[in-house]
Amino acid sequence: MRKNVFGRQFKRDANERKALFKNLLTSLVMEERIKTSTAKAKAIKAAADKLITKAKKALPAGRQGGRDAYRALEAEVNHHAVIKLIDDIAPRFAGRAGGYTRIIKIGNRVADNAPESVMEWTEKKVVKAIVTKKETSSSASSENRRATADKEEKKETPKKKVVAKKKEKKETKKK
Questions:
Q1: What DSSP designation does 14 have?
Q2: Using CB atoms within 10 A of its CB, is residue 17 exposed (0-12), middle (13-18) or buried (19+)?
Q3: Do 59 and 93 meet the contact criterion of CB atoms below 8 Å apart?
Q4: What's 122's DSSP letter?
Q5: Looking at the predicted structure, is the pLDDT value of residue 169 above 90?
Q6: CA proximity to 86, closest of 46, 25, 47, 29
Q7: Which CATH class is domain 14-121?
Q8: pLDDT, tens digit, for every residue of 84-133?
Q9: From CA 52, how far away is CA 143, in angstroms rounded?
Q10: pTM of the predicted model, to two decimals?
Q11: Structure confidence at residue 66 (pLDDT)
């Protein structure tokens, strides 16, 4: 009987469980989205939220000043994940007090019918799109448009003829 026992065991001993959670958290930080079983996602949700809180504490002073927070983070995820967590992910959540992760249920796994989920950060990475302008004169661009329009017409014309011939054959068969 399990009375007042916290957490899920996943049929693993303590060291295997810690390694599993560390790998899942590292993957979440590096990939920013992981697909796993719902039970595992729920098990690491609190740890992922605590990672962000620790990274936010290390954020103002940087990596050198926040050594204690840096060491605490490195105990839970690998070195490259800590750097990404402090530099990229934690600044996104500067104005948020909690709720850093979301779990989206996606159905059951085919192999063993286990419920699966996608776990991701609530704040997405902002991607800035760089728009390049082609330097062409207005007359050249209008000529290009006309040429592409002519090509499209040429492509559509044979298809229309074939369709028209098929319709004629059907009409003659009906008569």
A1: H
A2: middle
A3: no
A4: S
A5: no
A6: 29
A7: alpha beta
A8: 998 899 999 999 999 999 999 999 999 999 999 999 999 988 777 676 66
A9: 55
A10: 0.68
A11: 66
What are 21-78's pLDDT values in tens digits? Answer: 999 999 999 999 999 999 999 999 999 999 999 888 886 655 555 677 778 888 888 8
Q: For the chain, what are the domain ranges?
A: 14-121, 132-175
- Nearest CA among 122, 65, 56 for reference residue 94: 56
Amino acid at 146: R
Q: In the chain, count of helices (H) and strands (E)?
A: 6, 3
How high is the pLDDT of residue 27?
A: 95
Non-local (6+) Cβ contacts of 77 within 8 A are 22, 25, 26, 29, 51, 85
SS3 letters across 31-67: HCEEEEEHHHHHHHHHHHHHHHHHHHHHCCCHHHHCH
| Consecutive H or E run containing 108 | strand 101-108
**H-helix or E-strand containing 71?**
helix 67-76
- Lowest mean pLDDT, pick from 109-123, 135-149, 158-172: 135-149
Dihedral angle sign, alpha carbons of residues 80, 84, 86, 89: negative
Token pair 């209008």 in the structure block, residue = 142
